[in-house]
């Protein structure tokens, strides 16, 4: 599988490339936003590791441009550890984030996790809710809302299908975070809120009055669609 790593620090590129290449990934490198977009279009990578701070444009701007045409998984690297900066990256479509300095081994583990989430399911199946107003195809990982295909990131898709497979079950934010990130992930509860907001914008007829992903105040979320 092809991975594009984008960072303006050559030593970070060297280290990340070495670890990913050892896992048999085909690695492409970019040191600027312009080069990142050029290589994204040229090589169609399966995943992008994207630094937030680049010399010519922000990683956020690059992520937004890529999201206009692709659902490729994106892991954001950032030296900024504030909640505001992290949530900002997730709002524009990043699947995951890591704060510098980071462990290369942990980054490889995150890459493998995100790629597994993005991989097609094996079973042929279709889940239809509310008379076909929301349809999920697990094999192709396609989602249709009111007969229009919607583009979800790998993390958004995993959250939606987890809720949809367990209708009416209440999930706490901690349970959802553990499900999509893993037991060893130390993150913010608001990471889940941000992903849920993004999903609602894409699938709900009225995102401020959701019918599919319902908030249980003070507790978490549950799925409200009817099969």
UniProtKB/TrEMBL annotation:
- Domain OmpR/PhoB-type, by residue range, is 124-225
| Keywords of the record | Activator, DNA-binding, Phosphoprotein, Transcription, Transcription regulation, Two-component regulatory system
InterPro entries linked to this entry: CheY-like_superfamily, OmpR/PhoB-type_DNA-bd, Sig_transdc_resp-reg_C-effctor, Sig_transdc_resp-reg_receiver, WalR-like, WH-like_DNA-bd_sf
Q: Which GO terms describe its cellular component?
A: cytosol; protein-DNA complex
SUPFAM superfamilies in the record: C-terminal effector domain of the bipartite response regulators (SSF46894), CheY-like (SSF52172)
Positions of the DNA-binding region: 124-225
Q: Which GO terms describe its molecular function?
A: phosphorelay response regulator activity; transcription cis-regulatory region binding
Domain Response regulatory, first and last residues per copy: 2-115
| Any GO BP | regulation of DNA-templated transcription
Q: Provide the positions where the record notes the PTM 4-aspartylphosphate.
A: 51
Q: What Pfam families does the annotation carry?
A: Response_reg, Trans_reg_C
Q: Is Hydrolase one of the keywords UniProt gives this record?
A: no
Q: Which protein, by its recorded name, is this? A: Transcriptional regulatory protein c terminal
